């Protein structure tokens, strides 16, 4: 009986969460809370010159799906002019509303849903010469910390560099979900890193993508590991998927 009631309550809130007005209310709440955490914390962010250099022109900033929370205020303060790629389902649209408050526009879709349309729009954005792209190469449904090919195609077809970005903190709360989403508590030390730009030659053959994909994946895993080991023994986990947590 209790389980049935809980299921009904969860179903009700899922329906409620799909309403645009509710998403905007939650987006504003999250926006305020994230700024509160940011301004009560000490920041140690390396590579900001790269962010300032590429934040308003063609570049592809990549970050793991579970490491986005404290990147948003950094992006806003750097006055980044860009588009984020978000899933078109209600979770993605809710996140997109919050990112809009931080200054990012949105391209809706994913590799599993409307992939060609996303590729087309992303290439158009980069070729305009005025915007960068921000995307999670393991999102929105995993496997966790596996670099999908999307960013490689954007880079190959436009000449824009891929720039890995990550953060960790001294007071973490890792959610029990597939991406091990990292929530930062107030009064933390936030350590971030904007990596060096990585260019992919336009003449690169598709069969060579796996080698490049693996290289980028290793760079991003090492980036997360090096930031985490400053504060915690938590180790990044690969190959987790949403179905493991239903």
Fold blueprint:
Elements: H1 2-17, H2 20-39, E1 42-46, H3 48-54, E2 60-62, H4 71-77, E3 82-86, H5 90-101, E4 105-108, H6 115-127, E5 132-135, H7 150-158, E6 162-169, E7 172-174, E8 182-184, E9 189-194, H8 209-228
Parallel strand pairs: 1-9, 2-5, 2-6, 3-4, 3-5
Antiparallel strand pairs: 6-9, 7-8
Helix pairs in contact: 2-5, 6-7
SSE succession: HHEHEHEHEHEHEEEEH
**CATH architectural designation:** 3-Layer(aba) Sandwich
Rg over CA atoms: 18 Å
Instruction: Tell me the name of the CATH class.
Output: Alpha Beta
Shape: globular
- Beta-strand content bin: 15-25%
Number of strands: 9
Largest sheet strand order: 1-9-6-2-5-3-4
Query: For the terminal residues, how far apart are their CA atoms?
Result: 20 Å
Fill in the CATH topology: Glycerol-3-phosphate (1)-acyltransferase
